[in-house]
Design brief:
Blueprint (H helix, E strand, L loop, with lengths): L2 H28 L8 H23 L8 H28 L6 H12 L4
Length: about 120
């Protein structure tokens, strides 16, 4: 087999695995009672399927680890993951601490309590 056939085979395997994993995630969300999962189980299943999908994408489409000098690709991947984690965790931290979920009435009482003002 030449290199072109190996690449096409790799893409087809990755495509089929991606479709199966996406369908599995959809099925878990659509029918959580089928697997007897609670809400935490559904979240855990989705996260697990997402991580498996991530590694399938890296392996079959980006061919990570199959090149002659994989160190630079790994450095770029780790940098990208760290930037995404900083953005996601930072956004969640900001949203949690800005009290966006409060209604105006709750906000008034919250501010009064923070300032030590009694009604």
């Amino acid at each position: 087999m030449n290199n072109n056939q190996v690449t096409i085979k790799s893409y087809l395997i990755g495509f089929v695995l991606s479709i199966v994993l996406t369908s599995a995630a959809f099925f878990v969300v659509l029918r959580p009672g089928f697997f007897r999962l609670g809400s935490a189980g559904v979240v855990a299943a989705i996260i697990t399927l997402a991580l498996v999908q991530f590694f399938v994408q890296l392996t079959f489409f980006l061919h990570l680890g199959q090149e002659s000098k994989p160190r630079w690709n790994l450095v770029v991947l780790l940098s990208t993951i760290s930037i995404v984690l900083i953005l996601v965790v930072g956004s969640l931290w900001i949203m949690n601490h800005l009290n966006y979920n409060m209604t105006p009435g709750d906000m008034s009482s919250y501010m009064l309590n923070q300032e030590g003002i009694q009604k």
